Amino acid sequence: MNDRIKPMRQAVLAGDHKACRRPFPVGAEQAFRDPALSYSLRTALRFSAICDRETPVVEKDAEIVLQRTVIAVPEVCSDGEMDALRAKYFLHERGNVSNICPDYAGVIASGLDAVLSSIEGREGELYDVLRIEIAALYRLCDRYRTEARRVGNVAVAERLARLPREGARSFADALQMFRILHFSIWAEGEYHVIVGRLDQYLYPYLAADLAAGVLTRDSALELLEEFFVSFNLDSDLYPGMQQGDDGQSIVLGGCDAEGNDAYNLLSELCMTACGNLCLADPKINLRVSKNTPIERFTEATHLTAKGLGFPQYSNDDVVIPGLIALGYDPADAANYTVAACWEFIIPAKGMEIPNIAALFFPTAVHRALHASLASAPDFDSFLAAVKAEVTAEARRLTDSVQNLFILPAPFLSMMEGDCLQTGRDVSEGNLYNHYGIHGVGLSTAVDSLAAIRQFVFEEKTVSPAELIAAIDADFEGYTDLYATLRYADCKMGNGIEEVDELAKILLETFADSLKGIQNERGGIFRAGTGSAMFYLHANDSFATPDGRCAAEPYGTNYSPSLHVRNRGPLSVIRSFTLPDLTKTINGGPLTMEFHADSFLTEEGIRSVALLVKTFVEKGGHQLQLNAVDVEVLKDAQIHPENYRSLIVRVWGWSAYFVELSREYQDHVIRRQEFTP
Amino acid sequence: MRSGTVFDIKELGLYDGDGIRLTVFLKGCPLSCVWCQNPEGQRMLPEVFRHESRCRSCGRCRIPCTHPDCAPYGVCLRACPDRLVGLYGKVYTSDALADEINSYGDFLRYGGVTFSGGEPTLQSAFLREVAEKVPYPKAMETCAAVPEEDFLPLALLMDDLFVDLKIMDEDAHIRYTGQSNRQIFRNIRALDGAGKPYVIRVPLIPGITDSDENQDAIAAFLAGMHSLKRVELLSYNPFTPHKYALIGRAYTAAIADRPSNIRTDLFTARGIDCVALRLRGAAPTR
After folding, report:
1. Nearest-CA neighbor of A555 among A662, A394, A446, A480?
2. In 3-state terms, what secondary structure has residue A649?
């Protein structure tokens, strides 16, 4: 990070860029809220209204510009209209397209004039509204160009004389073009807009500039750092569950269509830039496999050591076969990317909703406990009842997703599949229209089953009636039983095969229950191991037979129960790589927290890097590591002003600790921390 | 087949050798250093621990039981619902310990097992049996205060050796560790004579081992050695001596309240490769 980038980073951490923000004028939304207009047209009018109210911000020494200054823009539907839509349709989250990875490369290369000429004379609503939106974007970029000239920024003025009308000619052009497109999609109303395989689609520009001597490695890194800072200019304005949940995830490395290692110089520069900046965005995912050299894991562990909570690893050896088994074209599977958190999606070809519902494993156990435990002659009979509950719940969830409606996304459609050729908005569907279902609280369910097996059926020290009574009383008056269950050894994460087998059974039951079920868009349902925010927000609340009280959260994603202290990180990896994870390929990582001191020396870094490599070799699908110091986190709760740049991994994304709400902060603090 | 006593097995120990380490802590130590952070490793026999601070005084552990394994301790080890009463020390046959270690094989091929303690050489014959059954890299952390026949043959089976050298002055050594250091010197010379590479570790305990004189004397002693790979100076981190309370003992060491005096220069001046490490805490308590 040089003397030009350092102040940019400081300014964004200090929030200086927020000074030029203005609220959207009250009443101006009437221009795009006319119920007589189509949603498409309203979306385009809203986009234009934002573009025309933006204040161009150009620093004299900037290379890449464009940031959101208009805040709190009303939706295209009034609240009443939205309620009516919800009553009539299944609306996912906010009703907009989300968790989607566009094909940036095409428009970066061609420019928007080429898009306009390709649709010239064509009739159809998508084309009509696209012309409106592109014109509005041109007006905004022209005003940016004027501002650049005014402040004497020749480079930006020159670039905006061509962009976004023409395609990118250089690496700097390509980064600026990306910024314009990414900005536009967010401004249109879509959210969790994924960056995707940036190191693949922008590498040709970098390679050409290096070959031509236009850039050196250092000047390319500087540009990239400035580009990455720009991801932090608007991220607080984007919708998400918490600050930081903004979906700006990049996927690096992995293989190309022929299966060759695709990690390149740009991948390496992205890692370096993130390590230098230590900002919450963009978030790095690293695709790895059994062939990934140890040096790359070591380099990535250096990033983890900085406490950023990324990279998140995904294992090509598991993910790609898993996707192919679900019916994805092998070339598409090889090109997978990661959605806002961890869901595996295909760039530019999907209108997938990988987080459409969540199955709670502890709920299935809870139902079986009451319905079948007393009458079950042996553990296997009880387990069969739990499996039946999982299947019933999976069916209920798939049945509940009917009559989906998504608000149109014309600008995004331009970069999705064959929408531009067919005139169909991507919100109506794409090549892949699959839905994903999270699997929440797996380890709590596994620990509960293991406890029931041991204490009710094997040792017979607890009767079914007593266990049910204790659960229903939230262990009130059952202190000894609570302690016996809570502090038992039979927990997932202790590397005990008989326990971990239960996880395998539950996951396979979940996946099998979804097999053959088609959604109304012709897609399938995918089973996953993610929890999203549901580890804190269960749909109902009850104590569980693993000695967990009703008020206690579940572990995040695919991780040990929150109150469990396992034998160590090797046992955790043994447990969590035992199931066949190709079957639950909607995603959801094992999350482990290591004390920051684990990374003090090169030896420590190397040990953790080898641990990640072993996780990959043993068939783990996804892994995220946090370098934390609980004492620091506790101090940050008391003195947030001293920890403005402290970053933690929450459930599928990194965020500034002090910007999280207290319950999410507390969950991170309560997680098991492995010490050196 | 021989049996031995282990008081902890730690996964991913750092500073215990190269790569992913599984560290096996063997129970029993000939020394009783006043600053010891693993007092539960000092005695050979298993001993009872009690977490008094979280005890609800339900009295269940005092109800006489018929479990044969509880008999020697006068307390039921299985009764506590909160798992606050238990044993430091688990007896393994060499087969059982080797099986436990080898079950981590997927990890150990990127690192290895490290025998620590307590003092592993106190269970030399047992560990030699174990070592022969473990096909992964092996390391040992030792205080070397045992007869040469217990030390050298076992040491030669290891891929990496970390030998502690604490105090050069014999009187001070006796005062702070309970034993003379003569045997330690003999063993280090024997190791060097055998041409076996080793690392010397010096714990820098403020006011006890970290004086300039002691560090210089250690450097002088090591100056002529041929197989010494390097010296590691371990700075001392204050710790909560809660483990002493768990086994009903008091922590009485008077350690100066200041950071360790680290003099890597005294070693490098004599041509010895020397690094300073900051060790954190001790083996976890179960």
Report:
1. A446
2. strand
Task: Compute the nearest-CA separation of B234 from chain A (Å).
Answer: 14
Q: Do the chains contact at B15 and A676, CB–CB below 8 Å?
A: yes
Q: What is the ipTM of this complex?
A: 0.93
Distance from CA of A550 to the nearest CA of B (A): 19
Of A174, A196, A228, the residue at which a domain comes to its end is A174
* In a domain? residue A22: yes
**Stretch 106-145 of chain B: residues touching chain A, C-beta under 8 Å:** 106-107, 110-111
**Cβ distance of A603 and B14 shorter than 8 Å:** yes
Number of structural domains, chain A?
A: 2
**Closest alpha carbon to A647 in A310, A249, A341, A308:** A308
pLDDT tens per residue across span A419-449: 999 999 999 999 999 999 999 999 999 999 9
Longest distance between any two alpha carbons in chain A, whole Å: 83
Superfamily of segment(s) B3-46+89-278: Aldolase class I (3.20.20.70)
Closest by alpha carbon to A407, among A124, A86, A133? A86
Nearest to A247 by CA among A378, A94, A66: A94
CA distance B79 to chain A (A): 10
A185 within domain boundaries: no
Question: Between β-strands B90-93 and B3-11, what pairing exists: parallel, antiparallel or unpaired?
Answer: antiparallel
A465 lies in a domain?
Answer: yes
Boundaries of domain holding A453: 353-588
With respect to residue A536, please indicate whether it lies within any of the assigned structural domains: yes
Residue at a domain's end among A572, A588, A604: A588
d(CA A659, CA A274): 20
Number of helices (H) and strands (E), helices first, in chain B?
A: 9, 11
Look at A607 and B21 and tell me if their CB atoms are within 8 Å. yes
Q: pLDDT tens digits for chain B (286 residues)?
A: 999 999 999 999 888 999 999 999 999 999 999 999 899 999 999 999 988 888 888 888 888 898 888 988 888 998 898 889 999 999 999 999 999 999 999 999 999 999 999 999 999 999 999 999 999 999 999 999 999 999 999 999 999 999 999 999 999 999 999 999 999 999 999 999 999 999 999 999 999 999 999 999 999 999 999 999 999 999 887 777 788 888 888 888 888 889 999 999 999 999 999 999 875 443 332 2
Domain ranges (residues) in chain B: 3-46+89-278, 52-85
Which of B233, B235, B177, B162 is CA-nearest to residue B205? B235
